[in-house]
Amino acid sequence: MRKSLKLSAAAIALTLALAGCGGSNDLESVDFKDQGKGKAPSVSFDTPLSVKDEDSRVLDEGDGEDVKEGDTVLVDAAVFSGADQKSQGDTYSGSPITITVNDQLKEKLPKVYDILKDTKVGTSFAYAKKPEDNSSQGSSGGSDDKDASAVEIYTVSKKLKKSAEGSEVPPQEGLPKVTMKDSGPEISIPEGQEEPKSVTAQNLIDGSGDEVKDGEKVYVKYSGVTWSDGKQFDSNWTKDPTGFPLDQVIKGWGEGLKGKKVGDRVLLEVPTDKAYGSKEQLGSESQQPAGPLVFVIDILGTSKADPPEDSQGGSGMQQGGQQGGAQQGAQQGAQ
Question: Which domain holds residue 202?
């Protein structure tokens, strides 16, 4: 679980490295053409392109949901060499970047905050920074020409829900009791109840959004406790949403969340063999919680996931869980 939260932090760091905004007209030559869902846009501009200061320009106004302060959005990114227009990588064909429109964004990137706090899903914009800023961070606009700026393109692809939304479902007898607090759910394990032997996924709120499918990335707020003592071992309830590829999580999550809907709040019981394992299997030095686990999960959205990469060992809800090649390419191009 902790590794996944680190991955979430890494995604935020990538976002802050990629995004930006300014006020000059140096990006006026950028021509943007949408190539459809899952494909990077076609971009052309005068070369070599070099800006005197950080610069941004809205390329296409979206017509989707309104995005406001406090919202979390999924953003696709593509990076092009300012010297020769060559692509340096993109996330349009894989997993998007997650950005929360909050005070942290306002402090670090006020111009980006100004755009995102009052925009719509579907909006695309361009960004570039001074060539010397590229060079100081290990990039020269994507080529050996140190006088060119990297040209970065961003599209707001989706807005995540802030919490579960829908009809409340009466609690099922014999399952853990859930009490919602400002800090998140409190989960009480029923006394004398036998530990779960199979996965149970009971809705507490029935959402009406898209169905969660195999191969997708699911964005959630969650809290987890151990069945043996009811102690919380992890939670992101008071933090930004976390995204997990459904086929790269513990088996209990994959089985329990498949077929659920965006907007659902799910009480999930996971037996030992579908969680991390027993104490004997994990060993004395493991930081993973042993035995059966219980989660409360709000499903806030889904997206396409990057393909899994081989990983030795690893910890956390996500099994493996490195960034995909496309996202790494975009990161390298923007640094």
Answer: 167-304
Sequential DSSP letters for 306-319: PPP---SS--SSBS
Are 76 and 97 in contact by the 8 Å Cβ rule? The answer is yes
Give me the pLDDT at residue 122, please.
Answer: 95
Annotated catalytic, 45? Answer: no
214 is catalytic: no
What is the number of structural domains in the chain?
Answer: 2
Give mean pLDDT in consecutive 10-residue pieces for the chain, a chain of 335 residues: 41 45 63 90 92 85 96 95 92 92 87 86 89 58 67 94 96 93 94 92 97 94 96 95 92 96 98 95 91 98 79 38 32 34
pLDDT for the residue 113: 83
- State yes or no: is 222 an active-site residue: yes
**How much is the pLDDT for 110?**
74
pLDDT given at position 145:
62
295 catalytically annotated: yes
| Predicted pLDDT of residue 128 | 84
Q: Catalytic annotation on 206?
A: no
Catalytic residue among 222, 244, 297, 299: 222
Burial grade of 243 (CB within 10 A; 0-12, 13-18, 19 or more): buried
Locate 113 and state its tokens: 């905050």
Is 244 among the residues known to form the active site?
Answer: no
Catalytic residue chosen out of the listed positions 99, 187, 250, 297:
250
Quick check: is 20 in a domain?
no
- The tokens of 97 are what? 């970047």
CA distance 72 to 283: 38
**Beta strands in 182-328, from DSSP E residues, in sequence order:** 184-188, 200-206, 216-226, 232-235, 242-245, 265-270, 293-304
Among 45, 113, 154, 276, which one carries the catalytic annotation?
Answer: 276
The domain that holds 223 is classified in CATH as 3.10.50.40
The rounded distance, in Å, linking the Cα atoms of 92 and 40 is: 5
